[in-house]
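dumping this here so i dont lose it
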């Protein structure tokens, strides 16, 4: 007969291979919706799951009778939603405080991370307050900058006031660039932390360049292919793209214009540039081939918080021409992997495109050094940074439970 050991084994003496936090992530947008917030947030959630965290994703239903998917590696909690005006393919979460209080009472998260500031995000903030949960947030979209492009510039101040109130109620707001942190600080935003966006360097790679795709575009080795990726909308400043293309054609350059994305400006662009190639919405796998097969990435937007397409293009070996703002400020090195134009001199955008596109040797030289600049933006590194921010928010909020104290001791804030 076996005799009991003098020192019985205590299960808690065997810690998990990695600390596991219970993280509720709240967002109004999620794949298959195609936008920078949805795509990068999905990468972050995947990264947190790989780091052994227990993630609960709270989002609006994308179709009426949608049910939570299983075997995703995280839990889905679906709320009511409605189409966003002017963006019918996207959903806006409806107020859901009562439902969130109920859900989080039954399954209490250690921290709530809110990625969007709509009604669902506000409800999550209020529910977390009721349950005394720490909250962090992301600043991912310049809604205050968009207002001037849609004839409601007078809403800029109220929008900024709302966003300031929203984010200042959280323990920390993550922003993707130092420039945005400086701007928001001037508007009274507090507790800001710079955490860059990541890029999938295995997918976005110069090796994806395709002679077959270029042949479909009727672009030979002497043709300069300009590419623009993003929503075809006023806030993307696409007049600059059209002006670059028209000026190069007028100068006799062999040039093609490829536009990836869709939106309300498509017909306007088609009328002005009838021979442009409209690729529409693409899968990420196909998009990677488009980037690598082009010669110059035109990104004239002035309303980005980051601009994920900038680092995707660079990782693909594609030189970037952008204004000196958002991700371009941090990751485009003039003459090394692209060119920057001052926001104060918008007329220089076209002249710079002319100088660059009509110098194939310069384009080729710069293309060879683009990828090295963004190699450090691996999603695993970004997820580790976010993990540290979440841990610090928990530590600073209240006295953690004994379980949390053990876990937080293994995480570097």
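and the seq i came up w/
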């Amino acid at each position: 007969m076996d005799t009991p050991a003098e020192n019985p084994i205590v299960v808690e003496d065997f810690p998990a291979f990695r600390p596991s936090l219970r993280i509720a992530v709240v967002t109004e947008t999620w794949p298959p919706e195609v936008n920078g917030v949805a795509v990068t947030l999905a990468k972050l959630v995947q990264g947190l799951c790989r780091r052994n965290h227990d993630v609960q994703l709270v989002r609006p239903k994308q179709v009426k009778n949608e049910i939570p998917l299983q075997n995703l590696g995280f839990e889905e909690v679906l709320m009511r939603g409605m189409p966003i005006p002017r963006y019918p393919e996207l959903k806006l979460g409806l107020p859901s405080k009562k439902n969130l209080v109920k859900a989080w009472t039954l399954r209490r998260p250690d921290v709530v991370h809110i990625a969007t500031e709509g009604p669902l995000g506000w409800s999550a903030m209020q529910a977390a307050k009721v349950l005394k949960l720490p909250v962090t947030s992301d600043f991912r979209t310049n809604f205050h900058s968009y207002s001037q492009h849609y004839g409601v510039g007078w809403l800029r101040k109220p929008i900024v006031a709302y966003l300031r109130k929203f984010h200042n109620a959280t323990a920390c707001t993550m922003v993707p660039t130092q420039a945005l942190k400086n701007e928001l600080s001037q508007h009274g935003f507090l507790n800001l932390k710079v955490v860059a966006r990541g890029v999938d360097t295995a997918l976005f790679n110069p090796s994806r360049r395709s002679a077959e795709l270029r042949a479909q575009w009727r672009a030979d080795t002497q043709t300069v292919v300009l590419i623009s990726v993003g929503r075809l909308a006023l806030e993307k400043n696409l007049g600059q793209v059209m002006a670059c293309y028209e000026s190069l054609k007028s100068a006799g350059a062999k040039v093609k214009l490829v536009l990836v994305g869709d939106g309300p400006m498509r017909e306007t662009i088609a009328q002005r540039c009838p021979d442009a190639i409209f690729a529409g919405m693409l899968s990420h796998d196909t998009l990677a081939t488009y980037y690598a097969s082009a010669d110059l990435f035109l990104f004239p937007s002035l309303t980005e918080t980051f601009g994920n397409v900038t680092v995707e293009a660079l990782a693909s070996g594609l030189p970037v021409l952008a204004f000196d703002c958002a991700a371009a400020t941090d990751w485009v090195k003039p003459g090394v992997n692209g060119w920057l134009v001052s926001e104060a001199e918008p007329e220089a955008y076209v002249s710079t495109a002319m100088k660059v596109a009509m110098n194939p040797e310069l384009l080729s030289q710069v293309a060879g050094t683009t990828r090295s600049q963004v190699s450090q933006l691996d999603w695993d590194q970004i997820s580790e940074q976010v993990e540290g921010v979440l841990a610090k928010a928990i530590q600073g909020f209240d006295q953690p439970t004994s379980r949390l104290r053990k876990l937080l001791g293994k995480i570097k804030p």
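The chain has two domains: 11-198+378-408, 206-374.
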